[in-house]
Amino acid sequence: MTTSKTEEFTQEEIWLADVSKTLSHPARIRILKILNEMNSCMVGTIVDKLPLAQATVSQHLKELKRVGLIEGEIDGPKICYCINKQTLQKAKSALDKLFTKIGCC
Amino acid sequence: MTTSKTEEFTQEEIWLADVSKTLSHPARIRILKILNEMNSCMVGTIVDKLPLAQATVSQHLKELKRVGLIEGEIDGPKICYCINKQTLQKAKSALDKLFTKIGCC
DNA sequence: TTACCTTATCGTATATTTACGATGAACGAT
DNA sequence: ATCGTTCATCGTAAATATACGATAAGGTAA
User: Fold this and answer.
1) Do B33 and A101 touch (CB under 8 A)?
2) Does B13 reside within a domain?
3) Is residue A68 in some structural domain?
4) H or E element: which one contains A1?
5) Is residue B24 less than 8 Å (CB to CB) from chain A?
6) In the predicted model, what is the mean pLDDT of residues B48-74?
7) The pairing of beta strand A78-83 with beta strand B70-75
8) What's the domain count of chain B?
9) Confidence band of A105 (pLDDT split at 50, 70, 90)
10) Domain range enclosing A93
11) Is pLDDT of A71 > 80?
């Protein structure tokens, strides 16, 4: 009975964990690279560049969209995805802050 | 049949995803902060500071150890964990490289 | 030895993630 | 109106993650 365990996690810790979760699959990392290289592109192009089924890629895009790392713009029957630079910067800042806080030079 | 899907993910992408997975839980982020604040400490101390059972904390430590972010040193019946600064730096570098590659300033 | 302390592991339950084929919804073109 | 294209969603299966109590394994100390 040293200290109580009523302590919870902070919103920043939770958000950081959430962003990390989104980055925790090679396909999603690759998707971000593709979107940056192409500036923006439609789903079919991404599917062609990944060894995964269209439904699976759609799920990964949904996860990236959930945390706000990408955005989709409807273009007729197609959807053009691009990186949300603002969220990207926020993620990098939060990670940088964490690394600094845990003693990384 | 635009392009073949034989493409696989790179080792760096896989490692980055793996590190991100390890950071994808608030408890593990908190553990890293605790270890840095205390420089190093034994499991019981970490358990007292987290709202989780000892077995659960042990699992989180195992995951952190798996990717090399922490190391444990046996000290009698206790085990003293500390951050592996080398792996930490490697993780930060890899993440920095990714953010740069995907257009983050 | 026995007793106790510390931590890992086991067993287990539940939830989440990942993957795919099939289907549906929305649009443009014919 | 119908067809083909594009993408999301549904349904589902398998794997992984998370959490805990119980137990084991290892050491210290009496």
Assistant:
1) yes
2) no
3) yes
4) none
5) yes
6) 97
7) unpaired
8) 1
9) confident
10) 24-101
11) yes
